[in-house]
């Protein structure tokens, strides 16, 4: 059974079994018993940290690797690295002591670029002290924090149908969006059904390196040509009346064509979207006149990922969950580290609280956690020196190199300390989150049909793989309903618990946005700068005023 101190209050949370947690506050002598989902059961203590209850008491599969269990140190190639540092239990006999300290608040400090966390450290210090400076990509020196102050955004865009309808017309029919991976359709004739809001597309491999994206609708009566992904197709024949088109979308047959004089020309080609491939991802854009994908991504984004060759990764897991919130609410939960102190308090038991994460924005792309080793907890007055942080940073680079060498061999010698430690959580407008460096995580968020209160969240793990070696088949999609738990996908490992904590917020944010008065939300100047960048892009694409 788990027994943990809360990192701020010091209250002891003890698992009693069957999802029940006892909480005892030594300062007041009060005690309470709760279910892991926050329901008070008994005792004088009637409120406890809901996210710490999830951490201590949530029932999980026995096969789930535990955030607090024994095992090797986390590395940048571990999908949970950004969240967890493998905290050891007291009974494991050793390990790093847990850190409990009173909340003091981060006073911040003035820098040349504006006010930052009290533990903020200059990017140049770490890059100048990289042990392989010749390997550091130029793009790593770039800094581009979001300008301006806090931004106010209307709550209506998160739940009103008119915004959803406008998104379909002005974003989903106009913007580049990731549909699937090249590895999802490895052979000619393999196809993927990509759905976004009320739109459906067939992504098909037509040649060794050629792909097409067709609107997934028969040109006779509009029936979907395919409802599920498939392999080895030779044509797309409508199940309703048998009309068929080639993989390239050219008309093959109208059954009983004698009854449709003059229709062949109109049905000659399945309408389609633009298709482009970047780093192993297949993107589509229904706007045939849209800018090239490379221009949409931007040179900084492409340069940042270049050395990591994501196209060489293999998809070892893919889980899709129905989330009861707007897609924007869901994705914003993964765009800043500001929420760690509230939502993932267990991560502070080793010290850092993520207030000193670095954030940059470059057009449609946002980058976070870039060359800023989390070592301090400024919200609890625990600050380390630059020299201490640099030593920790180098130790982590060495650990990452040792681990990666077991997977990619001597390829690891191409990388600087900065690249070995790269674990950035990034986002590409409108809805893709391809994490950087050795982080395996890729997230995608899509509206679920025409419901602005629901969305699909895709979690993919892209694992390092040796260059030139044949990869395992891409993992199929494991679909979870809104009534299931992330624990129903044990392949997610430790992140299942992290997602459970995040998901506890999402529907409650969705409901809160509908009741909030005044009807707007605020995003901070720096830590929520990537979200502000998203909403400025959103406003522009949607044609909205600043506060709409």
Beta content comes to 15-25%
What overall form do the CA principal axes indicate? Answer: globular
Tell me the total number of β-strands.
Answer: 26
Helical percentage: 10-25%
Class computed from helices, strands and strand pairing: alpha+beta
Q: What characterizes the major β-sheet?
A: 5 strands, antiparallel
Strand arrangement, largest sheet?
Answer: 1-2-3-4-5
The number of distinct helices, counting runs of at least 4 residues, comes to 11
Tell me the number of structural domains.
3
CATH class of the largest domain: Alpha Beta
Query: Uncertain regions: pLDDT < 50 for 5+ in a row?
Result: 62-74, 79-94
Average pLDDT over all residues: 92
CATH topology of the largest domain: Naphthalene 1,2-dioxygenase Alpha Subunit, Chain A, domain 1
What is the correct CATH architecture of the largest domain? Alpha-Beta Complex
Rounded to the nearest angstrom, the distance between the terminal CA atoms is: 49 Å
Radius of gyration over C-alpha positions, nearest whole angstrom: 25 Å
């Amino acid at each position: 059974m788990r027994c943990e101190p809360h990192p701020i209050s010091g209250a002891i949370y003890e698992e009693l079994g069957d999802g029940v947690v006892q909480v005892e506050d030594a300062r007041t002598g009060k005690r309470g018993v709760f279910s892991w989902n926050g329901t008070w059961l008994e005792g004088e203590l009637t409120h406890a940290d809901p996210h710490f209850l999830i951490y201590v008491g949530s029932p999980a599969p026995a096969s789930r690797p535990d955030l607090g269990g024994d095992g090797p140190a986390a590395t940048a190639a571990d999908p949970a690295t950004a969240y967890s540092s493998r905290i050891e239990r007291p009974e494991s006999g050793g390990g790093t002591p847990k850190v409990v300290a009173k909340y003091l608040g981060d006073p911040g400090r003035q820098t040349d670029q504006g006010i930052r966390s009290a533990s903020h450290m200059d990017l140049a210090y770490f890059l100048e002290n990289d042990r392989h400076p010749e390997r550091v990509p130029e793009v790593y020196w770039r800094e581009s924090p979001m300008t301006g102050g806090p931004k106010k955004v209307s709550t209506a865009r998160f739940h009103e149908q008119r915004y959803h309808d406008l998104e379909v017309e002005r974003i989903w029919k106009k913007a580049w969006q990731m549909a699937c991976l090249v590895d999802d359709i490895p052979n000619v004739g393999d196809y993927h059904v990509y759905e976004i809001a009320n739109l459906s597309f067939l992504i098909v491999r037509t040649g060794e390196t050629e792909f097409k994206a067709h609107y997934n609708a028969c040109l006779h009566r509009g029936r979907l040509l395919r409802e599920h992904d498939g392999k080895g197709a030779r044509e797309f024949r409508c199940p309703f009346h048998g009309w068929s088109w080639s993989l390239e979308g050219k008309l093959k047959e109208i059954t009983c064509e004698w009854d449709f004089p003059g229709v062949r020309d109109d049905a000659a080609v399945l309408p389609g979207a633009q298709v482009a491939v970047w780093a192993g991802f297949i993107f589509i854009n229904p706007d045939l006149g849209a800018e090239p994908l490379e221009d949409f991504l931007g040179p900084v984004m492409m340069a940042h990922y270049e050395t990591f060759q994501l196209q060489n990764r293999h998809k070892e897991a893919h889980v899709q969950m129905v989330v009861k919130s707007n897609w924007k609410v869901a994705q914003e939960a993964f765009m800043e580290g500001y929420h760690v102190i509230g939502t993932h308090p267990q991560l502070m038991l080793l010290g850092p609280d993520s207030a000193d994460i670095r954030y940059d924005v470059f057009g449609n792309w946002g980058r976070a956690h870039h060359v800023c080793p989390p070592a301090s907890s400024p919200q609890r007055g625990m600050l380390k020196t630059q020299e201490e942080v640099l030593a920790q940073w180098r130790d982590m680079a060495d650990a990452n190199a040792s681990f990666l060498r077991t997977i990619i061999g001597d390829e690891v010698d191409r990388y600087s300390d900065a690249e070995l430690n790269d674990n950035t959580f990034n986002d590409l407008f409108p809805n893709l989150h391809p994490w950087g460096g050795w982080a395996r995580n890729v997230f995608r968020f899509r509206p679920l049909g025409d419901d602005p209160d629901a969305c699909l969240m895709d979690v993919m793990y892209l694992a390092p793989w040796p260059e030139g070696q044949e990869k395992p088949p891409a993992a199929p999609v494991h679909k979870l309903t809104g009534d299931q738990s992330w624990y129903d996908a044990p392949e997610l490992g430790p992140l299942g618990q992290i997602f459970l904590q995040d998901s506890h917020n999402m529907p409650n944010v969705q409901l809160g946005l509908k009741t909030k008065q005044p009807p707007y939300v605020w995003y901070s100047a720096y830590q929520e700068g990537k979200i502000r960048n998203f909403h400025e892009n959103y406003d522009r694409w949607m044609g909205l005023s600043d506060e709409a």
